[in-house]
């Protein structure tokens, strides 16, 4: 069983809710047999699952990053009352719905994120710099070993590995999708990483939206030419040659050989919000980055896009986490991958 995570912006909290559900319902041993592919925020979640990073701390860092834009002067201007009223008309939703935060249910990781004191981000620094700080705070230093195919997880050293560059890159269970910006925008995939820093750089490039995250893309393998993977492949799927059989000696059940697609937007994905039956319109796969999936043209998706780029309030982050957890639970039951109840 393999998993694909779409680009999501700050709705990466939705992906984290899905990740927590997968850990709880399927178990770590099963996930150690899985491969993960992701773009932008989805690539970060793929790395979190493969390295078994602390999801509670990921929620803490997601909330911290949301505060960057919530506190940013540009965001305060763009999310003022005038724009809120305009957006409410476009989305056919009351203006107070766009700013409401009451009644948000918080599962355990979300409670941690809501109550743990965290350092406010520096709004004078490029946003991508704050993303890097958060990534280094949650991804373990032995991330490459945890992501590897060759070694059963139970035999990994208890201590963190150094970040020294090995002699060659090793295959991993994580595929990161980026966009090569020059000379022509083109989707590229990386699943072999030479060091911890090499992995961090790939993840930063996959999440780098020019202008929004900064002016110059992160340096990756000697070039500043890789940017957000969602610009060319927002809903990535594994190619047959990218899938590798799981290590036979790993314990735990082997699930059917298929890829579960995850997205915080309404559409034809395995794990996504429930469809809006009142809106039959779907975005057909006429664009290269839609693959074979379709996205519903619905007010809920427009609100989700709004929140993905300009989070209205960090207190909404736990709500999206809960939505991801609930949608994943429902989908796993429908796929008969977990028991009801």
TrEMBL record:
Which keywords does this chain's UniProt record carry?
Hydrolase, Lipid degradation, Lipid metabolism
Domain PNPLA: where?
3-241
PROSITE patterns, A to Z:
PNPLA
What stretch of residues is annotated with the motif GXGXXG? 7-12
Sorted alphabetically, which InterPro entries does this protein's record hold?
Acyl_Trfase/lysoPLipase, PLPL, PNPLA_dom
Recorded GO cellular component terms are: cytoplasm; lipid droplet; membrane
* Active-site residue numbers: 40, 228
Q: Motif range for GXSXG? A: 38-42
Recall the GO molecular function terms of this protein's record: triacylglycerol lipase activity
- Please give the biological process terms from Gene Ontology that the record holds: lipid homeostasis; triglyceride catabolic process
Locate the motif DGA/G.
228-230
Give the protein name, as stated in the record: PNPLA domain-containing protein
What organism, scientifically named, is this protein from? Capsaspora owczarzaki (strain ATCC 30864)
């Amino acid at each position: 069983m393999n998993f694909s995570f779409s680009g999501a912006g700050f709705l990466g909290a939705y992906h984290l809710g899905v990740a927590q559900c997968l850990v709880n319902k399927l178990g770590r041993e099963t996930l150690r047999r899985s491969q993960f592919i992701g773009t932008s925020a989805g690539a970060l979640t793929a790395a979190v699952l493969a390295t078994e990073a602390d999801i509670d701390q990921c929620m803490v860092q997601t909330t911290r990053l949301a505060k960057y834009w919530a506190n940013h002067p540009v965001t305060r201007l763009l999310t003022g009352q005038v724009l809120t009223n305009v957006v409410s008309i476009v989305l056919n939703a009351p203006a107070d719905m766009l700013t409401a935060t009451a009644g948000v249910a918080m599962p355990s990781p979300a409670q941690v994120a809501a109550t743990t004191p965290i350092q406010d981000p520096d709004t004078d620094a490029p946003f991508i710099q704050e993303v890097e700080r958060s990534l280094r705070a949650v991804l373990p230093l032995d991330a490459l070993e945890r992501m590897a195919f060759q070694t059963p997880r139970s035999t990994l050293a208890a201590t963190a590995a150094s970040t020294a560059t090995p002699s060659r890159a090793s295959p991993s269970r994580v595929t990161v999708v980026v966009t090569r910006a020059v000379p022509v925008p083109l989707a590229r995939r990386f699943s072999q990483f030479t060091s911890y820093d090499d992995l961090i750089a790939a993840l930063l490039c996959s999440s780098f939206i020019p202008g929004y995250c900064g002016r110059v893309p992160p340096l990756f393998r000697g070039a500043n030419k890789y940017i957000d993977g969602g610009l060319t492949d927002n809903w990535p799927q594994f190619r047959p040659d990218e899938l590798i059989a799981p290590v036979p000696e790993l314990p735990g059940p082997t699930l059917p050989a298929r890829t579960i697609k995850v997205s915080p937007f309404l559409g034809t994905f395995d794990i996504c919000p429930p469809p809006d039956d009142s809106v039959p319109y779907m975005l057909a796969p006429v664009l290269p980055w839609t693959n074979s999936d379709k996205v519903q043209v619905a007010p809920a998706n427009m609100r989700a896009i709004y929140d993905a780029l300009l989070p209205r309030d960090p207190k909404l982050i736990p709500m999206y986490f809960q939505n991801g957890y609930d949608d994943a639970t429902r989908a796993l039951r429908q796929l008969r991958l977990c028991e009801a109840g």
